[in-house]
Amino acid sequence: MTWSTWLALFVACWLISLSPGAGAVSCMAAGMRYGFARAWWNIIGLQAGVMFVLAVVAAGLGAMLAASTVAFALVKWAGVAYLVYLGVQQWRAPAAPISTAAADTGDGTPRALMTRGFLVNATNPKAILFMLAVLPQFIDASRPLAPQYLIAAATLLVTDAVVMSAYTAFAARLLRLLRGEAHVRWLNRTFGGMFVVAGVVLATFRR
Question: Which of 106, 128, 135 is nearest to 52 (CA)?
């Protein structure tokens, strides 16, 4: 991969990461509910999901998914169901500040947050098809593919982690400013609604 190609990829990765989606909603919801330090586990899960999608595309399975109506539908509706589930859970979350034991409940453990972040990205067929359309533009088929995919993965990993950290930090700071029970309940329902909207948007996505 040439220097100019990498620079173009670098810009594309920032644009991909900055575009609002389920990952951004997941980060803001986690930051708002658990604070920045704990919500980092959600970011790690999101990046693992991104790497999983990239590996699927690099292995050629993404093209198979794009070509199969049944496989595409199964992954898409699994993603829709999971986003709606997250929305319901967020809507029903207790209106308690993060200084209480709420962050230590089962859905706030590092493992639970990592799993949640991973599934948000791994069950998103839109991400797979988007990478199928974008990544080939930066890959030179006449050169070894593995190093190029590793460079692309590292670039996307760093840029997305930075952007998701910013979303998380913003939400965590917002929580510190709005610590009243009514405020936290309003934020829970706002982000819960955003998850459901993300699920509805994904449901309308076509190959």
Answer: 128
